[in-house]
Write a structure and sequence with these properties.
Structural class: alpha+beta
Distance between the termini: 59 Å
Order of helices and strands: HHHEEEEEEHHEEEEEEEEEEEEEEE
Number of helices: 5
Number of domains: 2
Shape: elongated
Oligomer: single chain
Strand content: 35-45%
Helix content: 10-25%
Largest sheet: 12 strands, antiparallel
Length: 410
């Protein structure tokens, strides 16, 4: 009986080993087959947009995208520590004279219009700011804030995170003002400075100025004749708020000319923050950025275009050689930071495919288009994209399949 048991176990081990070898061989065979058929796989999906027009400017990297790619690179290799939703500060002790707000944009050269309600911007339905901290000592303030018909898209980056001990040792100060700010303890705060090379706001509607502007820390941290307050985050950090001890942020800056750096307007952020309850959301509004994986066995030059400000003209937003299995990131170049309806992807010298980015498709991590797979992304109203749920088990890797006459994306 013992001999039979041993024989049975030995047989099972041989079968298991055989299956493992077959699985490895199948995988190797599939890879070999794909490489053998590369010329048939890395080809156009047959759905090229004939209305997309290329001009002499189409091969020049879009300037807005250059800034956005730089922003994406700020967090390269870093993980998200925490995402916070902004809560409008109630402006205490001036709550009866100033509206609840998260952003102030002065409309006068003297910046003496503190009691002008139109200078205060706040969350609205489907629009708010978020504060995100990363493991490499950077942070971001992103989202949308509104005053009347003026809509401001915020993409501000903070750098050089420091404790109070580190900050004060370098001559940094803590700006105490307002109800919450005057009672706060600087020892519980972290301090940053605005990264002016990678920060922008874009205004549209009835605003003091429209278009994209840069953002610079105020007072100038490099000016020895002015105090250095930086941007502070901690309990009571929303200076002008009645909620003493609640987590908040305050920062002060100039809006600047995006090309010359000229200081145009004074502004500040002042809001409470609470941890974001939802790690992700469905695609809402339009997609603002995507990280894609090149799920192929060889390196290729990849170029990506979008429609310039939703016109028929192509503008280039990415152009690099992408390695086998490598991730690469894209950011929208429209004035509002979006891609528009599609991003158009060219591999080698030819059109390969396009990805829908207007949220008509609930795109998210796991969505595949040929040998490209979405790793992560964000939308204007939904924030971080949730995982994509594939509607069926059809072949999505190749445009034509062995057991199906064609594979198209829905």
């Amino acid at each position: 009986m013992k001999q039979l048991s041993k024989l049975f176990l030995l047989t099972m081990l041989l079968i298991f080993a055989s299956c493992e070898n077959e699985s490895t061989e199948d995988s190797e065979t599939l890879q070999q087959r794909e490489i053998f058929d590369e010329a048939k796989i890395i080809v156009s999906d047959g759905e090229e947009d004939k209305d997309l027009m290329f001009t002499s400017n189409s091969e020049t990297m879009n300037e807005n995208t250059i800034m956005n790619v730089a922003k994406a690179n700020i967090t390269n290799g870093a993980s998200v520590l925490q995402v916070y939703d902004a809560i409008d500060a109630d402006r205490d002790p001036y709550g009866s004279q100033q509206p609840n707000a998260n952003f102030w944009w002065s409309e006068t050269p003297e910046a003496d219009d503190y009691f002008n309600a139109s200078t205060y911007y706040a969350a609205a339905e489907g629009a708010n700011l978020q504060f995100t901290e990363y493991s490499n000592g950077t942070a971001s303030i992103t989202g949308t804030t509104i005053s009347g018909t003026c809509v401001v898209s915020v993409n501000v980056w903070l750098k050089d995170k420091k404790t109070w001990a580190e900050w004060s040792a370098l001559g940094g100060e803590h700006k105490k003002e307002g109800t919450a700010g005057n009672t706060s303890d600087e020892a519980q705060f972290n301090f940053y400075v605005i990264d002016s090379e990678n920060s922008t706001v874009t205004a549209s509607g009835d605003c003091p100025q429209t278009g994209t502007m840069g953002v610079e820390q105020r007072p100038d941290p490099n000016d020895m004749n002015t105090p250095n307050y930086g941007s502070h985050v901690g309990p009571g950090g929303a200076n002008y708020d009645s909620n003493i001890g609640e987590l908040g942020l305050s920062s002060w800056g100039w809006l600047t000319d995006i090309n010359t750096g000229e200081r145009l307007w004074k502004m500040d952020f002042n809001f409470r923050i609470v941890p974001n309850a939802d790690e992700c959301s469905d695609c809402e509004g339009k997609v603002t950025d995507l990280t894609l994986n090149w799920d192929w066995h060889n390196d290729y030059r990849v170029r990506v275009y979008q429609r310039y400000e939703n016109t028929c003209y192509a503008t280039k937003i990415f152009d690099q050689v992408v390695g086998a299995g490598e991730d690469f990131s894209l950011s929208g170049s429209n004035a509002n930071g979006t891609f528009g309806k599609y991003v158009y992807i060219y591999v080698g010298n030819c059109y390969y495919t396009k990805i829908k980015t207007n949220c008509y498709l609930n795109i998210g991590p796991g969505y595949t288009k040929g040998v490209l797979e979405v790793v992560s992304g964000h939308s204007t109203l939904g924030g971080e994209l949730c995982e994509y749920v594939q509607p069926d088990n059809h072949c999505y890797r190749h445009w034509s399949c062995r057991y199906r006459s064609s594979c198209r994306y829905y």
